[in-house]
Fold:
Amino acid sequence: INSVDVVLNGIDLARYRPLSSYELDGPMRIAHVGRFMDVKNQSVLIETASILAARGIPICVDFYGVGPDLERCKALAKQLHMEDCVTFHGLINDVPRALARSDVFAFPSKYEGVPMALLEAMACGLPIVASPVGGVPDILSDGVSGLLRDPNASSFADAIEALYASEDLRFTLGMHALERSKCYSSVEMARNYMRVYRKSC
Structure:
């Protein structure tokens, strides 16, 4: 049996500033970065916001990205009267800065490979709620470096409520995610590619 070398995707960790505090100053800000399409499942986060609002939990959801499902998601936010809680920022050229303004990163995709947006959130030390699909469980350990939940509004609302209620939980998950992000540095990726190239020579 032939072995296969695996090189993990990497990002420039130096571009990302870890959170300096896990205290909440006003509503908890939840970020999502990704193209608006069915697989990314952004509508679940809008429904999640509606559930949390009904529970009296102050949150804001910031969406960054564009795509074919954007108008449908805007219509859903209006239908659920979530316009004051949900903001669609469109394309941005400074994801690290946007993530630095966030308290939580939510990622309810239906399927994924190794999502770069998730690695970026980890590099900021954000506590993460994500669906356990594709390569996500290889990146995050449930209850250790993130909360892995079924990609539906009820599951995500419960997880986000738990994060809202506990600064200790936000801190613990965020710190473990930050530590785990070191495995996905662009420097480490380049080093591993060089190792594979040398091995094949």
User: Anything to note?
Assistant: The mean pLDDT is 93. The longest helix spans residues 167-181. The helical segments are 42-54, 70-79, 95-100, 116-123, 136-139, 153-165, 167-181, 186-200.
